[in-house]
Amino acid sequence: MLREIKSITLGSGYDFIELSKYTNNKDSISVKFEDTGDYLTKWTLNDYGLLKIELGVIDYKKYENAHEINMIIEYEPSELPLSLCDIDTLDGLKRNIVDLKSLSYVSNIRLAASRRFDIKLNSFVLFNSIVLDSFGQTMKLEYENMERNNEYIPSFITLSEFKAKIMRFSMGSGYIPSADEICPHCKQKWNIHNLRDCVRQGDSLYHISCNKFSMYEKSKKEFDYIATSVFNDYSLHAVSNEYGSESYNGYWFIINTNDGDIKIGWRKRVVQIEWLENYKKFKFDGKHETVTKNFDDKSRYIHANTMEQVVEYLRKAKATILK
Predict the structure, then answer these.
(1) What is the DSSP string of 296-310?
(2) Nearby residues of 112 by Cβ (< 8 Å), 6 or more positions away
(3) pLDDT tens-digit readout, 103-152
(4) Is the dihedral of CA 304, 308, 310, 315 positive or negative?
(5) Can you tell me whether residue 293 is helix, strand or coil?
(6) pTM of structure
């Protein structure tokens, strides 16, 4: 049994210890508090070798003057359950990856090979959608910025061969859904052949088209509530997000009212409200508000930090319309 001390930083609410360098078998490892010797019982080990301490386990009041807690990790070192030929060659990957469960299993072993044994791995592109890189990480190919030649690309290919066929592409952090995970919108399960059609939204994975529809519904419900709180008679129609992608920030909407039209939508952390040219003139100018704003002959807009502020600003503008 080997022993090591790791420190975790307090105060984040979610506390993690990386264990992939020790073992990928939860049954062969124990974790306890150094100061008390008490064993940690409520924790999980994910596919990427991260130990997650569950909320409420640590008594933060007890450690209110400390920034870190030392944890004693005791573990039985284990060998890789598959050989490098199985996880680091095209033939081995073809043999061992047949579905999402086996893809996650092989990816986890590759991560352990890199982290625990310092093995520099080969890099591969699988199913034209994910990259297994030389550090054991699983990356997702970003297709929004991708241009392709008309060449056939096999389901298993080395990254260098892929680069020779592809003009431009980018890679981002990847996530392999479990075999039982479903798209929350259409309720369909994921498989190894539709991975490139997935996008993360919160804690869930959606098909790209499902996510757009879901974001449309979410945005419409949100801004319908706003409009109902201010106007008796109005209509909404969606427009493109003028700050970023609808997939992440939702759609913007035009609110058609008897007083004129308002364009409204989420930026990254704030809602932008713009009174369009046909909206009646009003006195409200937001001069006492410490937010981004502009009120002149060319444009009238303001940023709101909360939905309550959105309602407040719309009501102030409506209440001060010039006769």
Answers:
(1) SSS-EEEEESSHHHH
(2) 20, 21, 24, 49, 80, 136
(3) 988 998 898 888 878 899 999 999 988 999 999 989 888 755 455 555 67
(4) negative
(5) strand
(6) 0.64
**Could you tell me which residues come within 8 angstroms of residue 126 by beta carbon, excluding any fewer than 6 positions away?**
93, 97, 103, 132, 155, 156, 192
Cβ contacts of 206 within 8 Å, gap of 6 or more:
183, 184, 185, 198, 199, 200, 214
Of 127, 151, 147, the closest CA to residue 139 belongs to 127
Segments in the chain forming alpha helices (H) = 84-87, 90-96, 100-117, 159-165, 208-230, 246-249, 307-319
Q: Highest mean pLDDT range out of 12-26, 128-142, 149-163, 250-264? A: 250-264
CA 168 to chain centroid, in Å, comes to 23
**CA–CA distance, 315 with 304 (Å, rounded to integer):** 13
The C-alpha atoms of residue 74 and residue 192 are separated, in whole angstroms, by: 36
Q: Where are the domains of the chain?
A: 2-75, 84-176, 213-319
Torsion 143-147-150-155 (CA) sign: negative
Residue 198 Rama label (left phi>0; alpha psi -120 to 50; beta)? beta
The sheet with strand 156-158 has its strands ordered as 156-158, 124-126, 130-132, 138-148, 166-173
On the CB side of 228, how many CA atoms lie within 13 Å of its CA? 6
CA 310/CA 297 separation, integer angstroms: 22
DSSP count for the chain of H helices, then E strands: 7, 19
Q: Is 276 helix (H, G, I), strand (E, B) or coil?
A: coil
